[in-house]
Give the backbone structure.
Amino acid sequence: MTAYSTLCFLAAMAMLITFLNSKVGKMQSTIAITAGALILSLLMIIAGHNGFTYLNEIATEQLAKIDFNSFLLDGILGFLLFAGGLGINLNNLKDQKWEITVLALAATLFSTVFIGYALFYICQYLNFQFDLIYCLLFGALISPTDPIAVLAIVKKLKAPKRISTQIEGESLFNDGFGLVIFITLYSVAFLGTEPTAMSVSGLFLHEAIGGIVYGFALGLLFHYLISATNDHSMELLLTIGIPTAGYSFASLIGVSGPLAMVISGIMVGNWTRKNGFSDESKLLLDHFWELVDEFLNGVLFLLMGLSLLQYNFHQEDWILMLVAVPLTLFARFLSIQFSYFGFQRFRQYNPYSVSILTWGGLRGGLALAMAMLIPAGVMVVPDKQIDVREVILVMTYSVVFFSILVQGSTITPLINKAKAWQEKQ
């Protein structure tokens, strides 16, 4: 069976889980799909341990045909971020621009350093030799909140405007900054590069600032193209050109494609929506991209859950998985709380803001994709064949699935309390 056939069956499975959930479970669809995939993975693993090894082997063989990194980073990520940008209200974004900037830059950097050093000292205490650079690498990939997971779960709960804008805006912008930190640390860890202020600032300017400028130019180009036609079908087709050719070209010129998709999505969703689209297209735009978003999210989260079949877990992995979740949550809380110490000097906020931003800071496919970029073979426990890639992957898996299944399914009461407080003001 080809990779395309495998993706078709995964899409059908995701749709089936979503349909059954709408009739029985009525959970948020992303949570239902992830939970369903995890249950299916566990059943296959149990079946394999009880003599039905062919089920596990067939599933693993088919999943191995799909390059998760390429599927996400070079494929559907552009669509998901562009769709997320379309739903951002520019006026709300302007109102929270400083908060989003601090959360996306300073809070992400603080979390990266805190997780890295804390994990290093915990590993030393556990007598587990895991170098500081690898601990910082884990901190870099797990600190940015995932826009795909956040927009799929938190946005639909309709949190108060300021909180919603902060968590959506932060998740859309901090992945670009987090990726720069990750690439820098990756170069030091595996390519022997010496980190300097010049090299780091040059990388940031080229990737992040370049992505923002390119995204603005891309959004401007498609704004004029869409404005030049009154055919509603053509107007919607033109929007597809941004996350396809536009995203691919960003990779060719070496700028941040994710940031470019966010910027162009915000421009099309605000400026072009108001002045460029025909009346019929305005009605169809959100429905069209919501359908695309739901479909691709379903496949992505199902693939994330089933990918557990490809890995074997050692005792050391389980211990570090248990460490990773509370450590990441604590770092997230500190980064948000310290940021709010500064914010509260200038304006009043909902008292549940810190709690919602902490518990709603979900991680997802982007963190897993970065973890999978780490090369295999750098051994940590040679006699058990445990390498750096395995350790970082299992810790990332634990944080991602905890955030989606536990945090995503239990954040509703917090948001309801924030809404109730807002209504009383």
Q: What stands out?
A: The first strand starts at residue 379 and ends at 381. DSSP finds 18 helices and two strands in the chain. The mean pLDDT is 85.
